Amino acid sequence: MMRSIRLRLFAILLAATGAVWLLAVLWTYLSTQHEVERVLDARLTEAARMVSSLITDHHIDVAAAVDAARASDLAANFDTTAGDYNRQLSCQIWSLQGDLVSRSESAPTASLSQHDVGFAEQIVNGERWRVYAVINPELGVRVLVGDSIEIRDGLVGDVIKGQLVPALAILPILAGLIWLSVGRGLSPLSAIAEALSSRSAEELHALNDSGAPREVRPLLQSLNALFQRVREARDREKTFIAYAAHELKTPLAGLKTQAQVALRSDSDDVRDRALLQISTSVDRTSRLVRQLIDLAVVDSAEGRLVLEMLDMSAMVEDLVGEMAALRTAREITVNAEIAPDTAIQVASKALLRLALRNILENAFQYAPPGSLVRIAASFGDGIARIDIADQGSGIDEKDQLRVMARFQRGTSANTLGSGLGLSIVEMAISKLGGRLSFLRKDGFCVRVEIPPS
Hints:
Distance between the termini: 41 Å
Shape: rod-shaped
Oligomer: single chain
């Protein structure tokens, strides 16, 4: 397989040029053959009639009549005095009774043709002849004038050779010009390659496409879009690393401090409080690590989504059971208003599960102790709506857009959160083609809407 664009274009252009030349040569050959035959046939006709006229009017011998015909203007259109064309015409005069009266020097002794009038082709002594016959009724003779078809073909061949030799001589020059022209035409691609090869990994600014050829602009636009996506991904990565390092540093520092307090204290109460703080810090760190893993899962889910049927009732029951420890510690009651075997079709079960788990975790974390969390599912216009409502203060309206960014908390949030939960929810729901919204409905309600996939 040809992998070079330049070589491929060169081969295509050279093949196309060669094909055009071959067609031109074929057309020239056919047209030249037709024209030569027409002219030579006209010469045969004129020569035969001239011989017939001369022997009638002047009673001269056949050789002189043939010489006069050969010297006519029509015969002078071809060079018959040199090379293979010398003495091309042959003439015979036969009586109508079939006796040879006279012939030219170059004519064979056998009859050139047996026909009476007009053109005919005849093989004489193994050679093909084109013969024109005319009858002279006054003298009672038949005049035959002919020429060799082999010589005619040689004349056409010489004309074609005269065209092919210069063409073959020019072909290498043409090939070189095509090669240089293709290289010149591909120079914008070489310029792009050179510009990219000289860039460092940090240079992700767009390539200038203002002066680029029209055919190259889609490539530049695609590259610039890729640079934009890579730049945004790197910015997110830097922000992610910076905030993750900060968020992990705080509980780790608390763990170290409380561990030192527990080791140095002789008081059982102090050690118990320190161990309790260690347990809280471990829980916070564990939740942060899990959310970081969730975030990585959501980021990597693009392009791998497939339609799946999901039993909503079973998923919610599983999630509530998974967070039983947190729910029990805060004495939260859950009321799930989802009919058994309620199934929806989603692009990814895993993404919806991550989203709902983070919403439920926030509800259990921020709802007042001993309160109620309601989970309801409804369907309308083909859209599945999932509401998770708690009796907490919720998110201020001015913070609702802000809290969906990574590592951002609302102004009324406590210090236990990492600021990742709702950003994970928003990303997962967006990749499912759905929408996340906040409502005031018997407290604070987070609504997830999933359209039909």
